[in-house]
Amino acid sequence: QVQLVESGGGLVQAGGSLRLSCAASGIIFSINAMGWYRQAPGKQRELVAVITTGSSTNYADSVKGRFTISRDNAKNTVYLQMNSLKPEDSAVYYCHARVGTLAGGIPTEYNGWGQGTQVTVSS
What is the per-residue pLDDT across 40-61, written as a single tens digit (0 to 9) for each? Predict the structure, then answer.
């Protein structure tokens, strides 16, 4: 069974930086896409950044130029470097992954979420 474990959230002042990590564990033979979403209180979950198999990246307009997504294939880990943080970046950040795995010995795609990590940016 695939598990996603996030780390790196916390409290930071506006203008500061944080780095989030998400490690996928279990039987994994391919990573199709990994990314980060966030959800602020009273708002819908939204895409922050995603990186695909070919290292193609996509960012929300609100974070372009400030956030950078990267991955370490050997560690099945995706990172989100967040710079120039703003109070409006405060949210629970969730890792999402689509990876090739085995279920009952049958190749399948896992499509799931991490538990979330809180990011709070004070003004």
Answer: 999 999 999 999 988 899 999 9
